[in-house]
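ARCHIVE CARD
SHELF: 3
SLOT: left
DATA:
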Amino acid sequence: MKLPIPLDRPLVFFDLETTGVDTRTDRIVELALIRVSPQGDVLEKVRRFDPEMPIPPGATAIHGITDEDIADEATFAQRARSLASLLQGCDLAGFNILRFDLPLLDNEFHRAGVEFDVKGRRLIDMQTIFHREEPRDLTAAAKFYLDRAHPEAHTALGDIRTSAAVLSAQLHRYEELPRDLDGLHQYCAETSQYLGPLSDWFRSVDGDLQLRKGKYRGIALDEVARMDADYLGWIRGLDDTRREVGDVIDDAIERVRAEG
């Protein structure tokens, strides 16, 4: 696979098939990746996992993977260290990874007790590019950019093969797109910033953090700290609240207190 863009470190296209769409509680049943080296070498891998929970019929209807299909597979935790090693030092790309795949993957690594950090990586989201240029989904992107159908929709490897082809076509079509990964990372981050563990509770809107759920959904964090610091304290005290979320809440409360 040759991309029309220079690489100074490996770029990994990846896609997940899961038990559902809740990035905090749902689990990965299949992960596929294509790792492209700066020299143009390509590595493709597909792994299935025992999600340690039944796969809902609705999820099976989308990706076709049943409980029987993964009955003899290892859990994510059992393969987490080898996967983290494979991704070490790589930039990451995919379709809708900023809002879905990365937050869910991060939570899986967290449950497994394996360090996974995206700091310093470029994150390239073809959905972000597509929605800024031609708002639609991956099947429509394949039709628009590649002039072909996407018969492998909702198979992880099929999705990332199409995603990689779409990125190449986008770079050819839009002259205004940056021609380096730093630029593409910034282009994607302007619309869909990856918040890591913070995405459990917050979303970034014009550079500010807003609550993404609960009774103060859509309200800026600092404003909630002014109105109801006890509510933020309740979030901070939940058993499954990540340390990073607690730190951000503490900072907001301290800022408000400093205002007097």
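SLOT: right
DATA:
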Amino acid sequence: MPLEITSLKNPRIKLLTSLEKSKERKELGLFIVEGIREISLAQQSGFEMVTFYVCPEIFLQDKNYLVNLDGQDVLHLPSAIFSKVAYRENTGGIIAIAKTKPVTLNELSKKSNGLFLVLEKVEKPGNIGAMLRTADAAGLDGVIVCDPATDFFNPNVVRSSVGCLFTVPIASATNQEVMEWCKKNEIQICATALTASKNYHLIDYKKPTAILMGSESEGLSDFWINNAHERIIIPMKGKIDSMNVSNAAAIVIFEALRQRGS
């Protein structure tokens, strides 16, 4: 029988809420997954679940996103307690604690004609989550963030990605490591830049390619501008030469897919 939790002061509840903090996630190697779809996708991707927090009054299995609770550590929470610990309203009555996984470049599959999205200085969890959604829609071979300190398991990344954190290969590394990885695997580097750039649709994306995006405010650093094989630009007609980074990424990525016949 699942253990029923009736107090917010219960140690199991305190563990759950503590994982909102980066320090706790890194020290424990654990993170929060909210929602039936997200938990189901995490399980399908091989993430190990540690504990499930279930509100029996709300929880109902979804035939499209089944959650495996067999043999798992399941805790039951009344709705009054569950509503206090759930960040979202549409969790479907279930939250899980899962173990993190390594996110190094070595974890990415070496495909003969890979297409990757590389992000530099894109720090906001919501933007990273949105990029993962774009990457999932395009079936990319990986999303790489040029910052070894990036916390992919930040609850806001998990939430904003609506589960795509678990469907897209991910990695974080330094600029130098990513550049050397691209060179080793013969991946052309296409860096978005506002100056000395070609129109994005004039580039040949049929070869192995890494599409680089910087922050909306600063763009890419000189490191990538100087080391790129191609510098590309999306022509804009407005008065402000800035576009949401996720939208910009989608434009270039789907041009690459068009050229590849995908």
